Each structure stands twice: as C-alpha cells, then as structure tokens.
Amino acid sequence: MIVVPGPASKELGGKIAKELNAKVIGVFFKQFPDGESYVRFEGELENENVVIVQSTCPPQDSNLIRLFLLAGTAKDLGAKKVVVVVPYLAYARQDKRFLPGEAVSVNVMARVLKAIDIDGLVTVNVHEEKVLKKFDFPAKNVSAMGVLAKYFKEKGFDGAFALAPDDGALELAKEAAEVLGGGYDWLYKKRDLHTGEVETKAKKLDVAGRDVIIFDDIISTGGTIVNAAKILKEQGARRIFAACAHPLLIGNAVERILSSGVEEIVGTDSVPSMVSKVSVAPVIAKSLAEDF
Ligand code: R5P
Q1: Which domains does the chain have, with CATH numbers?
Q2: Is residue 102 exposed (0-12), middle (13-18) or buried (19+ Cβ within 10 Å)?
Q3: Catalytic residue among 15, 140, 150, 189
Q4: Can 10 be counted among the known catalytic residues?
Q5: Mean pLDDT across the stretch 101-108?
Q6: Rounded to an integer, what distance in angstroms lies between the CA atom of residue 82 and that of residue 72?
Q7: Helix (H) or strand (E) holding 235
Q8: Ligand 1 atom with least separation from CA of 93
Q9: What is the reported pTM?
C-alpha cells in the first residue's frame, strides 16, 4: 500500500503511513497565478494500492478540486486500486433539499467521485452517516469521539459529563461517555434556514458542580457551543470544555467560545487548526488495514 498525503493533509497523511508502515509518495503542488491548482505525484503508482489523504476543509472548493485531480490521475498512472481518505467531507451537510431549488450537494459529490473511478472512501464523523449510502462505492465513516474522550480522560477528566449540543450529536456524546463513564445528555437546537442563527432550548441537566465536555462533529461559527455553554453555566457546571472532530473555527469562533466560559477547545487534525490536539491517524489507519 502507498499513502499519498495531499496538500491539505500532509501531516496527517504522514502519520497514517507511519501507523500502517506504508511507503509515502509526495505530491508537488502549486497554484497558478489565476488560482487554478496543479498537482504532480512524486513517484510511481503503477500496480499499487494507493491511499490518497486529502481533507476538504476550507478552502473547500480548492481542496475538493485537488482531491479530484489526485484521485482522477492515480488510475491514469496505473494504480490498481485508489482509496480516498477525506477526513472532513465538505458538502456532506447539504443532504436534502431544505428549500425549493437548492442543490443537494452531497449527491453531486457522490456522482463526481464515482465518475473519477475511486474504489473506496474513508471519512471521519460525517454529519449524517446515512449520506454514505448515496455513494456507489464502499464508503466508511470512522469516529474520532473515542480518541477525543481519551484525551480528556488522560488529563484527569474521568467521570466528566458528555453533552451533545443538539440531537444530531447524541450518538457522539454517547460514544464519548463510554470512555469517560460520567453519563451524557443532549439539547434541542433549531437553526434558522435563512439566517443560519441557532436557538437552543434549555432543559434540566445533571451537571451542577460537575465537569462537562460538549462533543460535536463540527465547530464552525461557534454558535452551537456558545448556546450550550450558556445553559451549562446557568445550571452550575464546574468546568466546561468543547471537543469536536472538525474544528473549522470560522471568523472569531475561538474568541466567542472561550469568552462564553469554555476553558479549552479540542479538535482533531482532520482539519488542521490551532486546536487540533488529537490525531485521527490511528482510527483511520485501523479502518484502512481492516477494509482496504
Ligand atoms: C450541525 O448541526 C453540526 O453538527 C454542528 O453543530 C454545527 O455545524 C456547528 O456550527 P456552528 O459552530 O456554526 O454553530
């Protein structure tokens, strides 16, 4: 197996290769003055099983094109099998037509990846696992919640309470609670389809005097975490932390979250960022070793 770390996931790709004891082939990458991307594999792919690691974090559209260029070229160069590891799968959240006339973005992504002739895809905490059924090739979701919860456990937060800031994150909090052992719960959240503003409904939680970690798949503008932190503070939580698989952290998200009373934000290297303190390399490598 050959691992190719794409321009958006150089470090993570290297770590995955190390876990698998696999050879690495680099990518020469540049951007033309007009903004177009150029990629060149720096080694032979002929008759090899190739794993391309390329997150589609911001700038999503450019990183997507680079993924398409790499995956679409590997077969041209004689690769036997091409599996793409896309830790953060952009456009996966738009999985239905919420308003008339909208693009169902993930359907288009699935069709393009099929046309490129990839043999499989691995992603991390995709927003809704059921979207992977739309992909007409093996597509697998792995979870970072175990490694995130372990990070906190090792820092002495065994027994901390795991909170899902919305119903979509309930399974994530449940998974984290299996490691932390301090129970879990969730909040009801509603997002305005036009403004994007979120509203979170308070409910009685078993958090008074306790350390709480909020677990979510994505932290984007931080609004979801800020609302949850406010409810936790009102109910007397002791220390509050936020953990996510994909720290997009748009605009002043970090400042907003920290000034809402959250002590620390912990994300993974699915999206390289200042809070990417936990690596998803071991979970991805395990999945590749098992399935591809
Ligand atoms: C959506 O429901 C996701 O699970 C996250 O809760 C959401 O993307 C977070 O977005 P923001 O940080 O902008 O509230």
Answers
A1: 2-143+280-291 (3.40.50.2020), 145-269 (3.40.50.2020)
A2: exposed
A3: 189
A4: no
A5: 96
A6: 9
A7: none
A8: 1
A9: 0.95
